[in-house]
Design a protein that fits this description.
The protein is mostly helical and 305 residues long. It contains 12 helices and 2 strands. Helix 2 (42-60) packs across helix 3 (64-87). The termini are far apart.
């Protein structure tokens, strides 16, 4: 028989963890939703943000949540530079060029991290403990991580809906050529969009580093979950990504507790495959069709090129 108090505790834990998953996926969703670029190196950007937070804590004693104020702007610049040097030259090239370029970044970032910092796990011990949340004991860092995810989602929504650059991003995502005719530079929009996507990674990295150890290969653990969240939530759909992250967090918590932790990933990957084929749509892209159709369109364009 299911004990209600234990079930509620598992659900709360899953919701808090899911908020962090959503935070990791927001940047990936924004970049893919606007630019149709699948950034396979998204997890490695998360890994670099985690190392940045770790060294900020170890060298300067900076709290990981405070370090977001420094790391996020730096990663915005990092994203802009990455877009100019790597993504911009191949944005209209065949799809395999984007795939190989971003996959190549995985090896570059991972091996650079191996060389510079070794393979030993690096953990932040910032002194956070547990707190009582409506009578339920939960880790303090997960509550803060969830609140930061909420703030990031609201901030990104307001940016996209209430600012001129947000209007340009949405217009370019819907119809790049029409946006050009209205005087909007797709080149500038892509640069800012990629910078924003990586800045969101700069927000997520310190949050994740406060919960998990950092290693050169840790990004692979999160990028697959991010892809699942993006597909479930919809491309560029800020709040869709949020609820999808929470859903994955709840599924993971329930399966891990009542069944087996090793089966949580197969369960949500099965949902991922079903949604990928049957339902996934792009929010900013609107009528562009399912995610699968968009991927096939990219492939067809590459063949024509």
């Amino acid at each position: 028989m299911v004990q209600i108090d234990i079930l509620v505790q598992i659900l709360v834990y899953g919701i808090l963890t899911g908020g962090v998953y959503a935070l990791i996926a927001m940047g990936l969703s924004l970049i893919f939703g606007v630019m149709d670029v699948v950034n396979f190196a998204h997890g490695e950007y998360v890994m670099l943000a985690m190392y940045s937070s770790f060294f900020s804590w170890e060298i300067f004693g900076l709290d990981p949540f405070i370090s977001i104020l420094i790391i996020a702007p730096l990663f915005f610049v990092f994203g802009v530079v990455s877009e100019r040097l790597i993504i911009h030259p191949i944005i209209d090239k065949p799809a395999f060029a984007q795939i190989f370029a971003t996959v190549g970044l995985i090896w570059v970032f991972e091996n650079a991290a191996h060389f510079l910092w070794g393979t030993s796990p690096r953990g932040i011990r910032a002194g956070y403990g547990g707190i009582d949340l409506f009578g339920i004991p939960v880790p303090e860092v997960r509550v803060y991580g969830f609140l930061i995810a909420m703030l990031a989602a609201v901030g990104l929504y307001l940016l996209l809906e209430k600012t001129k650059i947000g209007l340009a991003i949405r217009a370019t995502a819907q119809d790049k050529e029409a946006a050009k005719l209205m005087g909007m530079s797709s080149e500038f929009v892509y640069m800012i969009t990629f910078g924003l996507g990586i800045a969101l990674v700069g927000v997520a990295g310190p949050v994740v580093a406060s919960m998990f150890s950092t290693t050169p290969t840790v990004g692979a653990n999160f990028v697959l979950i991010a892809f699942v969240v993006v597909v479930l939530g919809g491309l560029g759909n800020v709040f869709g990504v949020l609820w999808a992250g929470v859903l994955i967090g709840i599924i993971e918590a329930l399966v891990s507790f009542y069944w087996d932790p090793t089966l949580s990933a197969p369960v949500y990957y099965t949902i991922f495959i079903l949604v990928l084929v049957l339902r996934a749509t792009g929010y900013l892209g609107g009528s562009d069709g399912t995610l699968l159709e968009r991927l096939l369109n990219v492939r067809s364009a590459s063949r024509e090129a």
